[in-house]
Q: What sequence folds into this?
């Protein structure tokens, strides 16, 4: 039985087609990464599934319920982290979760839930107006997890999170998935999707251009990433090769010799998937002083290039990505701020 | 159940909003000032009491809509603009329940802030002017709450229709100006406009009573002021040179005005609810 199924789902705003005849299928129990550049229509699809906006044509079911007529049933069994939705500034974190728990009616261990998303107890008792972006995300996640939902819908879940937060988010997603829950999340960061998703769907200009497991997508197209570390001294790199996911290692200057504060060594590591990046960074940080990290992730542009036929979408992707070429540096660490105007409304 | 969830969060949220309380406190202060004024200038005690109570209704006439609109105009539009409405709609609630929940919570908050003003008024009236007819006082208080809720209903309706804070503000403020501030001057009021269009331009020869009826139907402030006349003994209204209900047709009597206010409680919210039900929340 499918968790999400859309049939010819279309949403048109005046003359802009935000979602174009989308046939999407997400199995129960899988972690589905919904990938696409800002403006591709990911948020609009999520909004359609949750009945925040109404389709121009086509239909969708969530957990077998009709997205237009059985919204209450859908929301009962679905936890949602909406993108760019502000919280209630005058309420504390705990009040947010308690409120949702009351509304859901079931038993909820609020302190355990707050703990699970990494929101400290004294922070939970403060008003949200004093929260950082990361704390807000954690709280939103806690709110979504109330009531043990069968399906988690996360719209750009790790935007605004620091690396530790992103890792925790991944752990939570894996835990949820391990319990047999379906997780549907959108992201414009390829590495993030790769790291957690069982299956990926790539959306471009409102159209689904590819679906498959990360291995399928990467395997056929050979997607890798490289990270450059500026280090003061170069440690013995032999054991780094055995870190899972590491493909290539290179050092500059090649002998790893004389360096200074102003002239550091560069260690460049090519990895097969994003999970390895954190492993590599941790490995190096334990052995030397890392001064800077530049992650040269494969941006979506070449990927779209690969999955769209005639090169025409390439141009529009480059534009929506705000990147003139395939280089898309440091995009995993949230430096690229989220774009709440993703929905073309 | 779901309405209750909306109310629970909203009351928790709004009671920490300073603006609502500032406006509420001003209402009480204004009543105190008015009572002090009557006490200093008033002659004998019986008429001073009546004057004070009439003043209470009149102060309410101008000020209560402002409290109601300020307290409620952002109820839905504000959440829609900030996006927090998505959290609200992520719960098992329907959009209708959101609108109704907001209506209940904002209505309750406005009523509570009015009761503070009533309590102060009752105490001062008793201290400064001696015993008064509790029926008149209760009548004014009840009608004032009804009047406030009619404006809360308008604000909720506007808020449900509006896509942004600025539109909600424009709608609420516009409604206030047209139905309330302009009513203070008969030449520019809506009723003068109705009279001009029907009798001046179209020459339909509509009677004064019918014009008056259209006035209360289109304007809760007029309905309130007419309904208040029913609270005072006719002797009093005659002494104060107020219009005599007895001289007007049956359909512009204070009782009808109360009914009209009740209709105002329902119609704007229903309109807003339907629009919100169809809206795209982006």
A:
């Amino acid at each position: 039985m499918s968790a999400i199924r859309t049939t010819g789902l279309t949403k048109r705003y005046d003359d802009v087609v935000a979602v174009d005849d989308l046939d999407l299928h997400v199995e129960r129990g899988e972690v589905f990464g919904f990938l696409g550049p800002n403006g591709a229509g990911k948020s609009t699809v999520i909004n359609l599934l949750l009945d925040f906006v109404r389709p121009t044509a086509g239909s969708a079911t969530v957990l077998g319920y009709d997205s237009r007529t059985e919204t209450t049933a859908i929301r009962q069994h679905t936890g949602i982290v909406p993108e760019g939705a502000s919280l209630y500034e005058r309420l504390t974190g705990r009040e947010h979760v308690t409120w949702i728990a009351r509304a859901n009616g079931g038993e909820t261990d609020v302190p355990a839930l707050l703990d699970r998303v990494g929101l400290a107890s004294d922070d939970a008792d403060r008003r949200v107006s004093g929260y950082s972006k990361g704390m807000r995300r954690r709280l939103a996640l806690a709110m979504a997890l109330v009531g043990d939902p069968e399906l988690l819908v996360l719209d750009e879940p790790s935007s605004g999170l620091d690396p530790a937060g992103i890792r925790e988010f991944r752990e939570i997603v894996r835990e949820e998935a391990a319990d047999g829950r379906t997780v549907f999340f959108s992201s414009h960061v390829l590495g993030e999707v790769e790291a957690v998703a069982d299956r990926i769907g790539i959306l471009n200009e409102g159209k689904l251009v590819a679906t498959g497991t990360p291995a399928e997508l990467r395997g056929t197209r050979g997607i890798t990433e490289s990270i450059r570390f500026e280090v003061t001294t170069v440690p013995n790199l032999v054991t780094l090769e055995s870190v899972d996911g590491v493909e290539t290692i290179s050092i500059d200057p090649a002998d790893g010799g004389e360096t200074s504060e102003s002239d550091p060594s560069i260690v460049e590591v090519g990895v097969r998937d994003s999970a390895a990046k954190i492993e590599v960074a941790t490995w190096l940080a334990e052995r030397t002083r890392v001064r800077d990290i530049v992650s040269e992730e494969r941006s979506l542009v070449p990927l779209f290039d690969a999955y769209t036929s005639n090169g025409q979408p390439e141009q529009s992707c480059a534009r929506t990505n705000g990147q003139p070429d395939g280089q898309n540096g440091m995009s995993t660490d949230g430096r690229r701020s989220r774009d709440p105007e993703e929905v073309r409304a | 159940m779901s309405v209750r969830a909306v109310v629970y969060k909203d009351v928790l949220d709004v009671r920490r909003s300073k603006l609502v309380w500032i406006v509420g406190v001003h209402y009480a202060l204004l009543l105190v000032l008015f009572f002090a004024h009557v006490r200093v200038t008033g002659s004998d005690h019986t008429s001073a009491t009546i004057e004070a109570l009439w003043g209470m209704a009149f102060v309410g006439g101008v000020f209560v809509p402002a409290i109601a609109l300020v307290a409620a105009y952002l109820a839905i539009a504000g959440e829609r603009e900030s996006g927090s409405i998505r959290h609200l709609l992520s719960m098992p609630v329907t959009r209708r329940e959101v609108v109704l929940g907001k209506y209940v919570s904002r209505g309750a908050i406005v009523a509570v802030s009015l009761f503070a003003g009533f309590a102060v008024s009752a105490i001062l009236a008793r201290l400064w002017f001696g015993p008064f007819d509790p029926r008149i006082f209760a009548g004014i208080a009840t009608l004032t709450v009804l009047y406030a809720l009619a404006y809360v209903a308008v604000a909720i309706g506007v808020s449900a229709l509006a896509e942004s804070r600025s539109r909600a503000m424009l709608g609420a403020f516009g409604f206030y100006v047209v139905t309330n501030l302009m009513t203070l001057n008969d030449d520019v009021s809506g009723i003068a406009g109705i009279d001009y269009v029907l009798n001046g331009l179209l020459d339909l020869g509509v009677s004064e009573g019918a014009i008056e009826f259209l006035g209360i139907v289109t304007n809760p402030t007029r309905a309130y002021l007419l309904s208040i006349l029913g609270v005072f003994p006719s002797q009093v209204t005659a002494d104060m040179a107020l219009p005599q209900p007895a001289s007007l047709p049956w359909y512009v009597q204070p009782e009808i005005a109360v009914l009209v206010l009740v209709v105002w409680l329902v119609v704007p919210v229903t309109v807003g609810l339907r629009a919100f039900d169809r809206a795209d929340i982006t």
In short: The longest helix of chain B spans residues 95-129. Chain B is about 80% helix and 0% strand. Residues 234 and 244 of chain B are 7 Å apart (CA to CA).
